[in-house]
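Worked problem 6 (solution included).
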Amino acid sequence: MNSRESKLQAFDRLLTIMDELRDQCPWDKKQTLQSLRHLTIEETYELGDAILENDLEEVKKELGDLLLHIVFYAKIGSETQDFDMADVCNAICEKLIHRHPHIYGDVEVKDEEEVKQNWEKLKLKEGKKSVLEGVPKGLPALVKASRIQDKVKGVGFDWEEPHQVWDKVQEELQELQVEVAAGNQDNMEAEFGDVLFSMINYARFLNINPEDALERTNKKFISRFQYLESKAAELGKPLMDMTLAEMDVFWNEAKKM
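Solution. The predicted structure is:
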């Protein structure tokens, strides 16, 4: 692997290239914090895909794309004299030191859970009024629910045993069935949301990341359905002209594969 010196040289090279692009490239000159935002979100999802696929070569490439965005934001910040790359690095260094008193201070912790609890307590001492302030409003609902539950767990608001959470799931399912029978659309939606929220909570107790689990299922379904499409194409028969029984044959083949 590369030495510390070569890593610093590589980072300096990236900073130099960013300076050159910002000065000479018509596209790079026009970019702002706002114009880059949606591209950064896209790059983050692409990194997430590569991680799920365990494609380490692609992970390396996507990390580079994301790092470029960070350097780009810092470059823009330096032009307005609000912050630069050194400020970004120093700020996160100071936060890490402050949030890890068990490493850089005299606090003792026995396990990961105590580290998380101390983290949330420190954030409140820093002036945050709620432990939920750190949950971005723009997160997808599934990810947001998971982060909310993780945050409140850090201050002790949590179930004690997995079976308690599963009982809650069953309770919410029953309440949903009542509203389905009643036919009230708003109530059905509310209860369905409660079912999802409780299932996400149960996933946490099973050490399952619900976002990753659902995305793996998405990928599995896509793969099987595309196999079905390819078999239908081989037969020269449109899917809409196939019976469910005919489709099921190829679906089961895809499952075995």
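Discussion: Residues 148 and 255 are 35 Å apart (CA to CA).
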